[in-house]
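User: I've been trying to design a sequence by hand for this structure and keep getting stuck. Would you show me what you'd pick, starting by listing the structure so we're on the same page?

Assistant: Good idea, let's start from the same input. This is the structure you sent:
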């Protein structure tokens, strides 16, 4: 009788601990690594020959918005295609629990702009068989999953639940009784399995105002009071459990940084700051962030940053685009239906304000946009041109050049924007800090613009293989063990006996990111942009092969990890 369920033979193991790579077999039993070293093939029911392959821990993705998508996509793609075996949901303070039944529609509408999740997909694809946060986790537990999920407790829905929507949107300060109820709800949610709490704290105007509600107003966490966050931090301190995720702009003010320090001091718990971002035109932004992180470490404050390390860029049409909210004039013209947007963008009276408020935070500037998908014979002449080139040819201002093309095509023209972090030299400064968590996939969000879920594959192929910024040992520690430690994934992110068997086996030389595609695979007839990977021969989640030769096996061995551990492990 076979002693093990599966053995991975002859692989080159990079175990996630930063130790040098070594040859070893890995035996798996009941979803756990049972033995490493030399294991005979006949000792297992199945043998995987990993000759010529790297064998490493599955990647851990700390920034996703799969809270809706998980109900119709057990693989939480794009993430699982690129080696992610565990992910955190509930980022930025955004989520769907607790939500009263009469506010479900409003909760879905809120996600249509701030994270650009298609409304029709949520409307058709979410079961809404919960009201409270513990009930939401039970629903997630029941849903089939091909990756593991760890839940933050998003504070936005709690603020609406306790204060009411209007008061929360107005930034009303909770009374002592309301603050006590907020803390009680947080305790209840943590008891149910939450791994900590999350909030977006972006200024409602200025360069940080890039993630707003569907109607252009701030999200409730943007206008919540510092004292409320401090009360939540004290809850974690009393429990000596959990961590905090804060979405605050890279160019955050001194007040924001002191606020994060204060939360860490009050709680004694780790805090993950999103996002540390490179702006090629302004390197002092990321350099200032790196200096501050080093100062925090020297003072013993456990503040980590999540770095935006992908240069996936944005492909979009002005039918859907909403990430220029930092400028009021652009925010206004990108609100409303397609017909309303079209009318506003065609209005010559608006052009002066649009020209004076050129957005630069998310994209690298309107003149640097590329016309990648003309939608009419008349605009075909501009294919693959920069807007700056179109402006020169036509004698127009870049804003007029952009909008005249888009309006002529009824807003169906596709444009492409490079990310703000295209210069490898600056990116290396992010990679050189060993405690910056790599990624920001935004999985499940901005599905019509962005394919950042490719970031693990991009790290290995670009940062390691092409540019030599990291060794494979360092890359796997940064992609697996470090994020697992920060978020509280118990015993994951490394390969060792006793650890859950979340494992990737890949062909390093063949590893690559596939071309972008449009997939009509969302509920409600909606579509999204995707990028698959190639080179992942086997991906295992809790000992089951979920992807083989870059294709799903339709095994749903993922689990909801309440407090970072499996239910059976907690009971034991």
């Amino acid at each position: 009788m076979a002693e093990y369920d599966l053995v991975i033979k002859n692989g080159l193991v990079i175990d996630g601990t930063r130790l040098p790579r070594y040859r070893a077999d890995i035996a798996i039993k009941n979803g756990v690594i049972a033995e490493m070293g030399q294991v005979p093939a006949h000792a297992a029911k199945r043998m995987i020959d990993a000759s010529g392959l790297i064998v490493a821990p599955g990647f851990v993705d700390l920034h996703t918005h799969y809270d809706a998508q998980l109900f119709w996509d057990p693989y939480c793609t794009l993430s699982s295609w690129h080696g992610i075996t565990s992910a955190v949901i509930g980022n930025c303070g955004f989520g769907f629990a607790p939500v009263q039944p009469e506010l479900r529609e409003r909760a879905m509408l809120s996600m249509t702009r701030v994270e650009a999740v298609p409304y029709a997909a949520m409307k058709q694809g979410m079961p809404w068989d919960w009201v409270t946060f513990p009930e939401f986790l039970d629903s997630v537990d029941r849903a089939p999953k091909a990756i593991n999920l760890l839940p933050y407790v998003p504070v936005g829905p709690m603020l609406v639940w306790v204060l009411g929507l209007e008061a929360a949107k107005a930034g009303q300060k909770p009374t002592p009784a309301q603050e006590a109820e907020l803390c009680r709800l947080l305790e209840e949610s943590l008891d149910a399995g939450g791994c900590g709490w999350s909030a977006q704290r972006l200024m409602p105007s200025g360069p940080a105002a890039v993630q707003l509600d569907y109607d252009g107003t701030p999200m409730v966490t943007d206008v919540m009071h510092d004292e409320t966050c401090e009360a939540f931090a004290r809850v974690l301190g009393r429990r000596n459990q959990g961590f905090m995720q804060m979405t605050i702009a890279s160019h955050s003010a001194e007040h924001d940084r002191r606020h994060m320090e204060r939360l860490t001091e009050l709680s004694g718990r780790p805090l993950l700051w999103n996002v540390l971002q490179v702006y090629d035109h302004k390197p002092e932004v990321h350099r200032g962030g790196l200096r501050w992180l080093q100062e925090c470490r020297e003072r013993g404050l456990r503040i980590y940053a999540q770095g935006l390390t992908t240069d996936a860029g944005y492909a979009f049409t002005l039918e859907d685009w909403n990430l220029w909210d930092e400028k009021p004039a652009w925010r206004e013209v990108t609100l409303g239906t397609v017909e309303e947007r079209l009318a506003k963008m065609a209005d010559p009276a608006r052009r002066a304000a649009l020209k004076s408020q050129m957005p630069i935070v998310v994209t690298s500037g309107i003149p640097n946009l590329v016309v990648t998908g003309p939608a009419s014979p008349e605009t075909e002449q501009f294919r693959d041109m920069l807007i700056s080139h179109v402006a020169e040819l036509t004698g127009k201002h870049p804003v007029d050049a952009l909008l005249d093309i888009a309006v002529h095509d009824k807003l169906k023209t596709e444009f492409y924007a490079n990310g703000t972090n295209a210069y490898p030299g600056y990116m290396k400064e992010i990679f050189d800090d060993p405690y910056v968590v790599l990624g920001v996939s935004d999985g499940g969000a901005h599905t019509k613009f962005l394919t950042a879920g490719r970031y693990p594959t991009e790290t290995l192929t670009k940062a390691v293989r092409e540019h030599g910024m990291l060794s494979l040992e360092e890359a796997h520690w940064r992609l697996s063990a470090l994020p697992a430690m920060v978020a509280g994934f118990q015993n994951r992110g490394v390969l060792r006996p006793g650890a859950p068997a979340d494992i990737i086996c890949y062909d390093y030389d063949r590893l690559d990111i596939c071309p972008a595609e449009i997939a009509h695979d969302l509920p409600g007839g909606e579509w999204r942009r995707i990028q698959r990977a190639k080179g992942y021969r086997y991906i295992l989640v809790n000992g089951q092969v979920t992807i083989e030769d870059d294709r799903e096996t339709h095994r749903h061995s993922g689990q909801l990890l309440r407090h970072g551990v499996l239910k059976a492990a907690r009971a034991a």
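That's my pick for every position. To get oriented when you compare it with your attempt: The chain has a mean pLDDT of 95. The CA atoms of residues 248 and 330 lie 21 Å apart.
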